[in-house]
Design goal:
This protein has 332 residues and is α/β, with parallel strands linked by helices. It is built from 13 helices and seven strands. It folds into two domains: 51-201, 3-Layer(aba) Sandwich (Rossmann fold), CATH 3.40.50; 215-332, no CATH class. The protein has a five-stranded parallel β-sheet with strand order 3-2-1-4-5, with helices on both faces. Keywords: Membrane, Transmembrane, Transmembrane helix.
Length: 332
């Protein structure tokens, strides 16, 4: 697919087939839309009497989406833990029924751990009648401006909040979410816990080419390079360095399946790196501007892409020992 001529021909064939099948697909698309619309219309949430026992954590509640969301959820009867960067913002939210403001800088382990401890204590006080429903990672920042206007410190600050902050919050609340999943699994009507990450469509918008400089992103699959050939060893070292609790949560069978899949990705399924090198060379030297993204799979429908990824990479994955067969986690 990286070879000259082949990639554009494959793309042309793909869209030709899609257009030829459009007459057959149109009714299916309509049925799918009606089905989803019906599901949206009939979707229900927890009964008002149950909502007080469901906690929702929202980060970035100083202003904007986060503050409005926290207040709206509290008014609907949920117990909301609103993470605020500044103590003043947290104080301004006090007094709202069922809303518990907490100081939370998502770049701070101590702040995040403190909020996790508060939610954990609240769950324990319920003696089985309370659980964490959602964690909404909404905190974000953006320096804004052209690349020449921004310093490396601006980018590092953005990454610290928008990426590492999301990882820190997700990782810290995951044990409570797993515990909530186990509780929800006991009832067919209980909503499963979830992580929600607020990003921005600006990350998908191509910027104006005002300087005549084109930007293209390459997304190679697995190829035989030093980065991938040593990957299994890295996984093994990470696994062996884990403590007993984490190893028991995942189990040896899960770890071994990860090693097998990684070995397949990085050896049997990996392509020769020259394919990518050739594609990059063409993109770097061709008279015509390269496409904004070098990735054929992005043209597949989401459901088809997920199926390809699952069948290719994860079909032989053994679930963690602490997760049930249907993917709903047990208590941790």
């Amino acid at each position: 697919m990286h070879a000259p001529v082949i990639a554009p021909l494959l793309l042309a064939v793909y869209w030709t087939v899609m257009l030829l099948l459009s007459a057959l697909m149109a009714p299916l698309a309509l049925i799918d839309g009606i089905t989803k619309a019906w599901a949206d219309a009939s979707a229900t949430e927890a009964a008002p009497a149950e909502r007080a026992g469901l906690a929702i954590v929202v980060t970035g509640c100083d202003s904007g989406f986060g503050r409005s969301l926290a207040v709206a959820l509290a008014e609907r009867g949920y117990t909301v833990f609103a993470g605020c960067l500044s103590p003043e913002s947290a104080s301004s939210l006090t007094g709202i029924h069922r809303l518990r403001a907490c100081k939370m800088d998502v770049t701070s382990d101590a702040d995040v751990d403190s909020c996790v401890a508060a939610v954990h204590a609240w769950v324990e006080e319920g003696r089985g009648a309370r659980r964490l429903l959602s964690v909404v990672s909404n905190a974000g920042r953006g320096a804004g401006g052209w690349v020449d206007w921004l310093s490396m410190g601006d980018y590092e600050s953005d990454i610290a909040v928008n990426f590492l902050g999301v990882v820190r919050v997700s990782k810290s609340f995951l044990p409570l979410l797993r515990r909530s999943a186990a509780a929800a699994a006991g009832s067919p009507f209980a909503a499963p816990p979830r992580l929600l990450i607020v990003s921005s469509m600006s990350g998908k918008l191509p910027l104006a080419n005002v300087w005549g400089v084109h930007v293209s992103t390459a997304l190679p699959s697995f190829h035989r390079t030093p980065l991938t050939t040593g990957g299994v060893g890295v996984l093994v070292r990470k696994w062996t360095s884990l403590g007993g609790e984490a190893r028991a949560l995942y189990g040896d069978h899960c770890a071994e399946s990860c090693f097998r899949i990684a070995d397949g990705m990085m050896s049997d399924w990996a392509w020769e790196p020259e394919r990518v090198t050739e594609a990059l060379a063409r993109a770097a030297t061709s008279r015509g501007a390269p496409p904004a993204e070098l990735n054929l799979l992005r043209h597949l429908p989401a459901a088809a892409l997920e199926t390809v990824i699952w069948r290719w990479y994860a079909s032989e994955l053994v679930p963690p020992a602490g997760a049930s067969a249907d993917g709903k986690g047990r208590a941790s």
